[in-house]
Every structure is written in C-alpha cells, then in structure tokens.
Amino acid sequence: MILPQEIIAKKRDGQTLNEIDIAFFVDGLVSKNFNDAQVGAMAMAIFKQGLSHQETVSLTLAMMNSGKVFSWGDAKSLSLSGPILDKHSTGGVGDKVSFMLAAIVAACGGYVPMISGRGLGHTGGTADKLESIAGFNVQPELAQFKRIVANLGMAIISQTSELAPADKRLYAIRDITATVASIPLITASILSKKLAAGLDVLVMDIKVGNGALMTDLKQARALARSITTVANDAGVNTQAIITDMNQVLGNSAGNALEIEETVKYLTGELHEPRLHQVVVSLAKAMLINSKLAADGESAIVKIDRALASGKAAEIFAKMISALGGPNDLLEKPWRSMNKAEVIIDVLAPCHGYLSTMQTRNIGFSVVGLGGGRTSNEQIIDHSVGFDRILPIATKVNRGDVIARVHASSKVSAELASKQYVEALEFSDASVAEPSIIYRL
Ligand code: URA
Questions:
Q1: What is the pLDDT of residues 385-415, one digit of tens each?
Q2: Which residue among 186, 187, 192, 207 has the greatest number of ligand 1 atoms within 8 angstroms of its CB, and so is best to mutate?
Q3: Domains of the chain
Q4: Max Cα separation, the chain?
Q5: Mind listing the pLDDT tens digit for each residue in 256-265?
Q6: Which of 114, 160, 176, 190 to mutate to test the pocket of ligand 1 (most atoms within 8 A of CB)?
Q7: Phi, psi (deg, nearest 5) at residue 434
Q8: Percent of the chain, pLDDT > 90?
Q9: Known catalytic residue: 192?
Q10: Catalytic site includes residue 409
C-alpha cells in the first residue's frame, strides 16, 4: 500500500514521481486521502524541487481526468461548423480581453466555450465581471452552455465543480501555503481545466509585470514554454503571447466598470490603444492557428470587419441575454448594472509625466473598495472601482483628473483615491510608452 507521506518524501528528496505516484496524489486530492497538511507539504515539495516535463504532463492529465472532460463529438448534432478555440490569461488588473476576444473570434467563424475564473488576490475575475449584469447566470446547465456556444459561437461561464475538481482543492491549498508561483503547478492547474474543455486551439496570454503572477520576463518566458510544450504534447495546438501588466489594462478596473468599457469597445465608442493591441494580437493568433485566417493580414481584415460591422457586438449582446441578462446591454448598460453611490475624481498631485504604476496595489485597492474578495464566501460590490485611468507616459498638470473612483461611501472613495495616487510615480522628463507585447 502506498502512503501519502512516501510520495511527499520522494518529491521532497528530489526524486522523480512516476505516473502511479502522480495518479495516487491526484486521486488523494479528490478522495481526501491526502489531508490538507499533506497536500500543502506535497505542494511545497513540488514548489522547491520542480517537476520534469513528463511529471508535469502526468499531473496535468490526471487533474484533467479528475472531473468531466467535454466531448464535442456530438458536434454534428450541435452543427458546429468551425474550430473550437479558447484563450486563457494568467490574470491581471483591468483585463477584460476575454469579452471582446470571444465575440470577435465567434464573429469570424470560431466556437469559443470559455470557462472563466473568479477574482484571485489582487486580480479581477471574468465570472465576477459578468455577474455585474442583473440576471446573468454564470452557472447554467452544461447542455445549455453547449447549445449557446453552438448557436452563437461563444459563451462565457464560470468554473464548475465538475471540471478538474482535483485542481480546485490543490489551488485552494496552494493559495494559503505560498506555493502558487510554481511553473509546473501553474501549468498543470491552468491546462487541466482548459484541456477538459475539448479545445482544438488554445492561446495563452501570459501577463508579465508588477500586476501579474509573473513579475519578470524570464519567469514569464519559462511559464510560456512550459504551458505550450505540455499543451501541444497533450494534442491541443497552443501558442503563448506575453503581454504587459505594468499598468491597468484599458481605462477601468472594477467589475461593472469593465463591462461598461467592453460595451464601449464593441460598439466602437472607445478603443483604448493598449487594450486594443492585446485583443488584436490574441485574436490574430487564434484565427491563424485555427486556420480561420490564412495569415496575419487576412486575420486583421477579419477582426476589423467583425468590429466595424457590429457582428461581434451583436454576438456578445445575444450571449448576455441567452444567459439570463437583459436585451439592451449595449444600448443601456447601466439599466442592468448598479452604479456606485459615490464617484470622485483622483487628481494629479504634481506636474510631470506618469512614469510608473504599482498595478498590484491598484488591484488591491479595488478589493478594498469591496470589488474583490478577501475570503471565499465574501459577496462583492460590483459597482466599485476606477475608471478614466490615464496610461503611463501621459503628461499631466497638478490638479488634472488622472482617474475616477467609484465607491460605496465618501470615506472609502477618499481612501481609494489616496491609495491610487500613492501607487503612481511622476517624472519631470518625458517617459517612453511601455511595451505591450513582449518577445517570447
Ligand atoms: N490560474 C490558475 O488557474 N491556476 C494557477 O495556478 C495560477 C493561475
């Protein structure tokens, strides 16, 4: 009989785990044959000793098989006439890319069954953002989810307990044992969920910077390599793109505010340039890798057409109402989302060029306003956050509006405004606009 402590000791001492050891661990995650202390010890052993490529593949596949694995084999009855694709981001602040990207790719003939996460630490969660919209159901029956994907080309829902339950438990314990930032564990965690969705093509958005899980480029590149090799070995055509998270992406951070920015983007009212560049880069990779576009040039033509024709906006609006939301989100977003009680301007404290933004602190400031969780069961306030955020390199005069705070009280608004200013630095000399996409 194998004991959990033997497997833990093997990894602690730097030995290689075989497939049976890994299957025993993953089985123990679901059956609780590994108690919380043993899971924590195992996570720390992996964190310190790492996993080989083969161990990472075995852990990913075992965690994927711990729950339901989607089969789109009934594609004919659902009449899917194109590839099944998805994007996953490692998380950031103001990252609302999933909404526009899924709608654009669906408008170009792809099918995007996107299973999204909740906010984690200082980062926002796509599922939380969707719940800003009155009536929207992020946990439909899987049959309904599949039907909507088949009819519209996209649907975004939240992680269900049926999908990779082993990861759910392992992740919760990693979160409280300082073992999140391990490349093999992140690889297995993300891919066990994504591969369970039965994809043809996956594009990974690896965020790098002071608001991301990976704070330096070397780590981000290592994670990109790990995820792409494991996913490609598992049979899913996967590409990684490294994008900047040294400032809030787009001009808002906060659940309902990010939905409002999405509506403005899809209806053509506002394309914040950095956000647009990330959306286009990821969409281009998805279209080319799935052969929906022959090359970069034709991908761009298709993306522009999906936006300019209003088709992407229409698909997004239909997805919102198909999952219980209103029929008029694009026309009147605030009719079905709560507005914050208090809105105040954040003012520049001096003249100069905005030179750095402590993005993680701004994410935590949104959490402090009530827009994210500090414990699992917490109910969040979707209305709060920041908008009208000015990007790095902007020249400002003292007293200019550099952002707005949306809060539930004057006291919390003023605190968040102070935190926002403290998260910024200004310089007398002009500042170059930071990179948005980094070389792999
Ligand atoms: N997101 C995940 O789903 N898992 C990780 O380990 C890190 C980010």
A1: 999 999 999 999 999 999 999 999 999 999 9
A2: 186
A3: 4-50 (no CATH), 75-161+183-334 (3.40.1030.10), 338-427 (3.90.1170.30)
A4: 71
A5: 999 999 999 9
A6: 190
A7: -65, 160
A8: 87
A9: no
A10: no
